[in-house]
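Annual report, structural modelling task.

Input specification for the 5-O-phosphono-beta-D-ribofuranosylamine complex:
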Amino acid sequence: MLNIVVLVSGGGTNLQAIMDSIADGTVKNVTIKGVISNNRNAYALERAKLEGIAGECISPKDYPDRESFNEALLKGVESYNPDLVVLAGFLVAIPAKMIERYPNRIINIHPSLIPSFCGVGYYGLKVHEKALERGVKVTGATVHVVTEGLDEGPILAQKPVMVNDDDTPKTLQKRVMENAEWVILPEVINDIANGNIRL
Ligand code: GRF
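The model returned the following structure:
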């Protein structure tokens, strides 16, 4: 059994895709032990609650400085004793101490084909605005291992999405989420849980 903890910040549609894939059996031998959000209003926490999964908010706003928040976040993750930490729309920088504690056992979903449109400032809708600005014909999503550098770790999976002439950032984001993110994140978790990917 692969025990995972999922870190979220927003709507939690990637978390929902993982939960749905476990429920319908396409993802096997995986248990979500907990969901942690830096944002107490994240609908992702509501999704966890509806699924009967432990959820909590660990917010930088509740700590006097970044160091004490980082420590609280690491303790929070450790409390679930995960085999794998999944960043699903998590918008807070992962502390170096967490990467040291879970070497090659933290994965992230990014809404572009890395190395395009990634790094500092590239998150959420911004990624799709830049893709449309550049005029790329193909974009997509990437699951990669989290390392010290932002969006620089080994790539585990990618899925392309064609850009339509009439796409807006929002229509493109929706299609990348539906057709790519929600597909490859559960797939990679399943592959790790069942020995098809060795981290
Ligand atoms: C979305 O922009 C998604 O592309 C990225 O994180 C954001 C929130 O996703 N991965 P979610 O709905 O909270 O999973």
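The chain is about 35% helix and 20% strand.
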